[in-house]
Design a protein that fits this description.
The protein is mainly α. The chain has a single domain, classed as Up-down Bundle (Growth Hormone, Chain: A), CATH 1.20.1250.20. The chain contains 16 helices and no strands. The longest helix has 55 residues, at 115-169. It is globular. The two termini are 28 Å apart.
Length: 401
Amino acid sequence: MLSSSADVFLVFALLWLAEPQGWSGAQTALLILATRLPLLVGGVVGGRAVDRFGPRAMILVDGVVRTAVLGVLALSARDGSLELRLVILLTALAGITQPLSYAGARTLVVRYEPPHLRARANALLALGDQLPLVLAAAFLGAALTAFGVSATMAVPAALMLGVAAIAVLLPRGDGQDHRARADSAGTASPAPKTGSSPWRVPGVKALVALSVAYYAAYGPFEPALPSFVRDDLGGEADAYGVVWTAFGIGALATVVLAPRLSRWRPGVVNAVGAAVWGLVTLPLVLLDSVPAAAALMLVSGAVWGPYAAIEATALQQWTPPERHGRLFGTQRALLATAAPLGAAVGALALNVTEPAVVLAVSALACTAAGLVTLTRPGIQRRAAPVAPPSRSRSAERDLST
């Protein structure tokens, strides 16, 4: 949650400050790309490092590096201004290690939890991804008003310091002994062995490809929303925070449905979710008040909520645990790159069209991504059955230990 909060808060802050800092749409697009493209390298290389050196060590590396880099960014804004070239450099450096905490946490789920509890554990992790939307959006406007730019930019650095502290406190050994006990108790069903690459497992490519298309189509939504709040809704930073807070609350309310939805066909559930999200969010462009927009974003967030947890549970079920680091590292890199690429396109489009048009095209593209994905054969794969936990005395004794 702290890692996601740092990332979301930083992105929200930079997008909101882009116009007051005098950055053009092209400059904002360049910032978005420079912030996110390093994640592609960091995710691929960092995911392999998670498998090689362990999730705990790599989460600690992410915490230390981002604390230092984002701290320098905050110090550079002491006079209230942000030098664009320095912002691009520092956020790019922070992006290289950002996938480590994400991949490390998803890898630890399998090592800490027996199979019948992993869907719930992924839902809890998804709460950690969704809650930052509420916290960052709610705090951003107040922080900028009360503390100014420099102190506001120090918030992500403080959050990453917390990540480093938690990484130090995690159990040593990454929970592998616990996984062995759970397996010996008959509560684990081994993932299929498919060679060195988890991408050869049926359904994995289709599921991740859906997310890449969905996130890329959603991307223009982020740079267009601040302008839409200003120009069409007549709101300021606090209104922008209210709209995103409503979205986050909706997502938090439905993420608890993920374990139940994960039992069927995860790809179909998520493809339908992407299509419905676009249709539900499209009417936003017709609204002219902040309360109405917040109410619609509440519903939009509710549709969005279970998506990530459903995907994570399916990928964990379908692939060998010893390859989870590279799988989730690469997945994070692809998703963290797809959305900013879409956002960069959206920022450029704002130079030639209205924010409402960009939002409408983004919503319709999400619907199209979901509908097209439903035609792909790999998306039909069922969730792997999870054996119920053994009720024998020896198994219960091992699990309680």
